[in-house]
Amino acid sequence: MLKGKRMNRIKWLGLILLFVITSAACKKSVKGETQVYPTPDPVGTYALGADVSWITEMEAAGKKFYNAAGEQQDLLKILKDKGINTIRLRVWVNPTSGYCNTADVLAKAKRAKAANMRLLIDFHYSDSWADPGQQNKPAAWVSQDFATLKTSVYNHTVDVLTVLKINKIVPEWVQVGNETNNGMLWNDGKASTNMKNFADLVLSGYNGVKAVDPATKVVVHISNGYDNSLFRWIFDGLKNNGAKWDVIGMSMYPTATDWSAKNTQCLTNMTDMVSRYGSEVMICELGMPVTDAVACKAFIKDLIAKNKSLSNNKGLGVFYWEPQSYNSWSGYKLGAFDDTGKPTVAMDGFLTPPTP
């Protein structure tokens, strides 16, 4: 009899525990229906990310963000409920607007930390945009000789990361340059002109990152992740000239009609980067026209699966670039929020498990 009572008590305790877990996993939307929100992968596992570097500038201009039910919320809350667990932030040296300088990056990094999100820092080593078409030196560095330029890269890297560390923020990853298809800090560091100079600049950034925290992984980031010949040229050149890195970063911006073929080419390239250099691989940027949200969702899901399939867990994560840039903010039309400031179905590509 005593044994039977004990068994009944255990059954009741089990039912109570099940009820508590179920209740915690669900919440009511403003319309009243029960919704189950995804739990982001914990720190140390796969990164589902978004670059939201425009967030402070958009908010200052009066832009607001809303969940699918039309409820105004903080952007990071909306993204987290879509499965995003990591934030990427770009750093400019001395931008005229002030946005993306050290103080602005710190403010955004604090918000990411408060939201319990991970962090990727992206050094452009410029006062403005650095990409395959432009890698302009900061104004303050223009007249420097190459030896001083290497020191400036090191010092700038250390200075920004030290400010973050003082505030108890240590990024898991740091990009040394942004989409450096032909090097950076032109013309001194243009890869097609002087690969050794480019490698020396990457090494200066690498050493700066490791000086602040040796556990932070250094990313070298190239666009067109489907272009294996470009990646072999850059990374063979860096390796042969003494540069160091931990992670190979890629960008992927296909169309609604060619994304499947490009993803297949990207998988071939990622697999080659793992076998050729032993590197981990991350998709640091992706995007597709906001008008192609359904195709974009399929593209994201497929690219995540391909990146995750790399041997020895070498695939680290994927990042949407400025998904919140609705109403073509700054003329950008590859976001993943609609004209009312709500996420499109494209963002469901990050959900784990994906929505049907």
From TrEMBL:
Hydrolase: present as a keyword of the record?
Answer: yes
User: GO biological process annotations for this chain's record?
Assistant: pectin catabolic process
Coiled coil stretches, renumbered? none
What chemistry does it catalyse, as a reaction equation? The enzyme specifically hydrolyzes (1->4)-beta-D-galactosidic linkages in type I arabinogalactans
Arranged from A to Z, the UniProt key words for this protein are:
Glycosidase, Hydrolase
Q: Which InterPro entries match?
A: GH, Glyco_hydro_53
> What EC identifiers does the entry list?
3.2.1.89
- Molecular function (GO) terms listed? arabinogalactan endo-1,4-beta-galactosidase activity; glucosidase activity
Family (UniProt): Belongs to the glycosyl hydrolase 53 family.
Name the PANTHER family on file. ARABINOGALACTAN ENDO-BETA-1,4-GALACTANASE A (PTHR34983:SF1)
Name of the molecule in the record: Arabinogalactan endo-beta-1,4-galactanase
